[in-house]
Backbone:
C-alpha cells in the first residue's frame, strides 16, 4: 500500500510552494512531466520511517524545472507557473486530495500577493537607486584619488628628473642652487600632500592617520621652517639631498596608488613601492636631521621664532632649543613610520604568498 505524506501548499502569481511533512528525507525524487508532479522519498512521516510518495496534476501548465530543498523537518518544493496568474485551486480535480492542505504560514490572498509584489519591487528599486548612488560616489572618489596621485606623481617626477639632469650637467655646482630652482614645485607638492591626511582622517583611503600626519607635518616643517625661513640655508648642499630622497620615494609611491584606483597592479612597481623606502626613508630622515643641526646656530644668532617670556624674567626662549627637542621627536617619528611601513610590506607580501599557494 502506497503511503502518502502530508503536503501543504501556497501560491504566488508566478510560483507554487509545496511543503512536504517528512523528517530526515532521503533518496528524494521530484519531477514534473506534462503538469503532473510526482514525488517519492524515504523518511519519517505520519506512518513512521517508510517510503512515501504522491502525485499532483496541476490546474494549469507549469514549467518542467522544479527545485526542492530538504531540511531536517520537511522538504520544500518550488514549481514555476507557465503563465503568470492566480489559480482558484491547485489541482485539476475540484475535490482536493485528502493529504493536501493550505500552508497558512505562506498563504496570501491575490490582493495580498499583489501588495507583496509591489513591496518587493519598491525595495528592489530602492536598493538599485542606493547601488547607483554608491557606484557614483565610488567613481567620483576613484577619479579624485587618481587625479590627486597623478598630479603628485608629475610634480615629484619633474623634481627628480630636473635634479638628476642638473647634476649631470653642472656637477657639484648644482648642489648649491637646488632651493632656488626646485623649491616652488616642492612647496606646491608638499602643501598638496595635506590632502592625504584628510583622506585618511575621513576614511577616503584606508590607512592610518598618525603615520601620514607625522610624514606630512615633518616634511613641511623642514621645508617651510628650516629651509623656507632661513636664507642662509638656501645654498646648503643638504637641500639637494633632502629633495632628492623625498622625490625618489614618491615617484614609485604615487603611480602605485594610481594603478590601485582601478584595482590594477604591476608587480615590479609593487615591489619597489614596498621596498625602496627601506634604504631611502632612513637616509631622508638623516638628511633632514643634518638640515636641522645646521640651522640651530642660525636660529640661535638671529633669534628668529624665539618665544618671548614675561618682563619679570626679562629674556626669551630661543627656537634653537625647540629644534633640539624636535631632533628627538624626529627619530621617534622615524621609528613609528618605519614600523608602520614594515607592517604594510609584511602584510602585502604575506597576502601575495598566501594567494600563490
Residues:
Amino acid at each position: 500500500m502506497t503511503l502518502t505524506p502530508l503536503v501543504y501548499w501556497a501560491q504566488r502569481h508566478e510560483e507554487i510552494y509545496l511543503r512536504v511533512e517528512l523528517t530526515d528525507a532521503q533518496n528524494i525524487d521530484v519531477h514534473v512531466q506534462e503538469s503532473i508532479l510526482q514525488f517519492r522519498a524515504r523518511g519519517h512521516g505520519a506512518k513512521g520511517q517508510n517510503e512515501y510518495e504522491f502525485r499532483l496534476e496541476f490546474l494549469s501548465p507549469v514549467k518542467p524545472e522544479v527545485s526542492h530543498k530538504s531540511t531536517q523537518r520537511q522538504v520544500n518544493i518550488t514549481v514555476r507557473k507557465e503563465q503568470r496568474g492566480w489559480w482558484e485551486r491547485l489541482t485539476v480535480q475540484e475535490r482536493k486530495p485528502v493529504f493536501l492542505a493550505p500552508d497558512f504560514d505562506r498563504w496570501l490572498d491575490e490582493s495580498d500577493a499583489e501588495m507583496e509584489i509591489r513591496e518587493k519591487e519598491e525595495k528592489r528599486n530602492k536598493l538599485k537607486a542606493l547601488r547607483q548612488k554608491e557606484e557614483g560616489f565610488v567613481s567620483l572618489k576613484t577619479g579624485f584619488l587618481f587625479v590627486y596621485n597623478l598630479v603628485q606623481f608629475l610634480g615629484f617626477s619633474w623634481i627628480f628628473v630636473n635634479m638628476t639632469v642638473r647634476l649631470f650637467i653642472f656637477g657639484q655646482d648644482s648642489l648649491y642652487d637646488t632651493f632656488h630652482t626646485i623649491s616652488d614645485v616642492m612647496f606646491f607638492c608638499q602643501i598638496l600632500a595635506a590632502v592625504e591626511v584628510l583622506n585618511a582622517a575621513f576614511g577616503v583611503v584606508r590607512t592610518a592617520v598618525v603615520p601620514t600626519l607625522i610624514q606630512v607635518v615633518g616634511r613641511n616643517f623642514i621645508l617651510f621652517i628650516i629651509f623656507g625661513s632661513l636664507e642662509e640655508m638656501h645654498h646648503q648642499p643638504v637641500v639637494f639631498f633632502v629633495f632628492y630622497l623625498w622625490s625618489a620615494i614618491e615617484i614609485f609611491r604615487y603611480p602605485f596608488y594610481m594603478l590601485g584606483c582601478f584595482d590594477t597592479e604591476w608587480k615590479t612597481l609593487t615591489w619597489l613601492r614596498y621596498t625602496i623606502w627601506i634604504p631611502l626613508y632612513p637616509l631622508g630622515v638623516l638628511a633632514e636631521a643634518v638640515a636641522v643641526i645646521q640651522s640651530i646656530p642660525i636660529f640661535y644668532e638671529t633669534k628668529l621664532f624665539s618665544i618671548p617670556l614675561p618682563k619679570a624674567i626679562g629674556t626669551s626662549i630661543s627656537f634653537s632649543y625647540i629644534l633640539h627637542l624636535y631632533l628627538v621627536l624626529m627619530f621617534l617619528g622615524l621609528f613609528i613610520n618605519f614600523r608602520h611601513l614594515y607592517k604594510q610590506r609584511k602584510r602585502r607580501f604575506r597576502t601575495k604568498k598566501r594567494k600563490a599557494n
About this structure: The longest strand covers residues 23-33.
